Amino acid sequence: MVIQHLTKQYGRKRVVDEVSFEIPQGQVLSLIGPNGAGKSTVMGMISRLVAKDAGLIHFEGQDLTKWNSRELSKRLAILTQSNNIQMKLTVRELVSFGRFPYCQGRLQPEDQEKVDQALAYMELDAIADQFIDELSGGQRQRAMIAMVIAQDTDYILLDEPTNNLDIYHATKMMKIVRRLCDELGKTVILVLHEINYAAFYSDYICAFVEGRVAHFGTVQEVITKENLSEIYGVDFEIQQVEGRPLSIYY
Amino acid sequence: MKQRSLQIKALILIGLAVLAVIGYLTINVNPKYAAYAMELRVPKLLVMLVTAFCIGGASIVFQTLIQNKIVTPCLLGMNSLYALIHTAVVFFLGSSSLIARHPQLSFVVDLVIMGGAAILIYGTLFKKMKHQILYVLLAGTVMSTFFSSMQTTLTRIMDPNEYDALLGSLVASFSNVNSSLLLISTVLITGILVVLRRELKLLDVLALGKNQAVNLGVDVDKTNRRLLLGVTILIAIATALVGPISFLGLIIANLSRQLFQTYRHSWLIFGSALLGMIVLVGGQLAVEHLFAYSIPISVLITIGGGFYFLVLLLGKGRQQVW
Amino acid sequence: MLLRVKSTLILTVLLMVCAAASLFIGVVDFSVMDIFSGNWEAFEILMISRLPRLLAILCTGMGMSVAGLIMQQLCMNKFVSPTTGATISSAQLGILCALLFMPGSTLWVRAGFAFTAAIAGTWIFVALIQRIQFKDVVMVPLVGIMFGNVIGGITNYLAYKYEMTQALSSWLVGHFSLVMKGRYELVMLVVPLIAAAFIFANHFNIVGMGKDFSKNLGVSYNAVLFLGLTIAAMITASVVVIAGSISYIGLIVPNLVTMFKGDKLRGTLTDTALFGALFVLISDMIGRVVIAPYELPIELIVGVLGSLIFLILLWMRLNGKGRFIKKAEGGCKG
After folding, report:
1. What confidence tens digit (pLDDT) does each residue in B206-264 have?
2. What is the pTM of this model?
3. Which domains does chain B have, with CATH numbers?
4. Is B71 helix (H, G, I), strand (E, B) or coil?
5. Subunits with 3+ C-beta pairs closer than 8 A to C
6. Given CB atoms, is A140 within the 8 Å cutoff of chain B?
7. Which residue ranges does the record assign to the ABC transporter domain (chain A) (predicted)?
8. How far is C320 from chain A (nearest CA, A)?
């Protein structure tokens, strides 16, 4: 996926300003930056939830807006922060929705199989028949991820997946992200606030400041003392832990 | 197992509806005049069935579109437009004019005007308003306040005799519907269902919320627009057929949701229509035999529905977020 | 500072000019000269009909827009108003009860009924919306409209049962044609109520920020909330008793004014009152001129102008222009 000169304006304010980068296939890419830097908006435009004002998004050789919506939903999945589904829905039913692009609601045996695999992968078998409004935040998040897995797309976009999770569940979530990439060969794109999660679990990092791409590169290239101070306006210390840069700030 | 419990509940509902229908057909019927009584009562029942289906189905779809269970399609403003059309006809043309006297003609006039308004507000305006459904709804309610202010203005300066004649047509009634209207309505409803067959299948996914629906490959804006237009036209048909009934949709849609506890809209719509049948037939029984026609059924339903609405509001308050 | 005073000054001057002009519009033509040259007939018309009408219009315009502004501030929602907050429909129910149960009652007794019902209705509505967390600010007025429909349903039922529908409709449509000396003085109640609103303006502002916020500043949340709602409901009821219901003013005028002047209540209150009076006055003049010598009810004129302006406001909000949007995002806190 290639992004060129992507721009979004709200009123007179340019929230995303001529953003260009390329998404490396089969890797985990994290979008980081301070509040209001435009990372979630970029994510929204990549996932077609937000309409772009200018620029191009090339996805598999074709303009993203030219894609047939249903075909695209077999290639690219997005999970946003706001997921307060208000339906009486069991975990299994929710995960089954992931097969909707393939079967339009009528589950075939192979769809059933994919659903079972996704449930097993996320260790949800035990609670598969519980209603999602009875689950804890971490469980619900896992159920949503299982749905995305069942959707069986090459690209998975996650908007702040660790939001509202405690340290245990957030770390678990990041490990899942890593596995999605390593074991299932997915291309994962994340919006993250936690720099250290980004540094330890992703391959590439794209840092935004005021609607522009400030830095793009591998973790080691981007996560440096100078870069981070410039992005966030706070002093940073970097220590190498297990070959990755751990940033310390206070 | 879940499927099973849905089926049982549906069977119970069907049983209740059949019971209500039998009750309605047989209570206080002198066997000697049975044939005559059937001739009077069967068409009424058919009208109720069509109305229940229109309002019940439309309400479920409407609630899913709005993502909120305490709304009713009476917010769409078709009621006040209907009242305005009829008042204007009587005011400008007189109660003895052709349109006022001729039921088929007035039905067609109602439908054309309401359909036109629906396309204008919920089709074109919706598009222009960037498919923000709540905003177009607010715009719709503003228009409906405007319609009713025109309507009340007209009634205030109207000849009281004409007003009495008008009042009859402003109150919902199942009695004066003739069979040709029933036929036209049925054909129209079938047509809408055929046109919207694809969108109706997407309802389950739409209920997941806009982001999820987009993610799963649904063209949400277009689907919403077509469904909203369909809902409005269904309500327009029901209103043109029997007159304005507010809050019926709220009652039956919520009862259906509470009863079936499922996300699957085919069941919800089915249940809602059946419940509508039960409420209407039961209400009509009460009006005819308990209240001896002293209050119209629509008023009964509005008041009952109003209290149900308050109960829902307070109940939801405790559970918060919807 | 200068700008603030400037807008107020301009509005005052405009209002005075229009008010003077409106005195000389009507079926019987007379001019300023007639008054001063001692034309007794002209003077009588002025005192019995024209002046009362003008005063009633000014009170209505100021009252309804201030009532709307107070409700919007207290609920922190730009869409709440006497129309969308069930105040008007409750007042109508009150009047109907007075007509039914005390047929020979005076205007003041009817007003008493209307006050009680309007206050109760508004309180119940606000209590309801505070119990619920709304995902979207627009849900609040929609719930209000449905709540108003419930009350309207009861009113209709009673009216239908006792065959009062057409009699009731004179309270459903706002109009000033029956306003004359001896029949309108009640609407003057609006003046002390607006004065009270001025005194408590800062309190309303604080309460609008939420329960915790006001507690922190030592303001009794419930007391001020109920005081504010009571003032708004009483203003509305006095207007409904005299002139019938006039929708939109309470919704549109405050929104237009805040678009230009911001949300500080003290600063906008004067302008809102002035602009509301001007809006109703101009609408009334249009209604009197269009099909003279007959007149259109004010409700119709305000309805046409109001719904147009409201749609434009919605439009601007959607396109991210103007301040109509930003401040409304808070929803109704409680």
Report:
1. 988 888 898 888 888 899 999 999 999 999 999 998 888 888 998 999 999 888 888 88
2. 0.85
3. 2-319 (1.10.3470.10)
4. coil
5. A, B
6. no
7. 1-235
8. 6
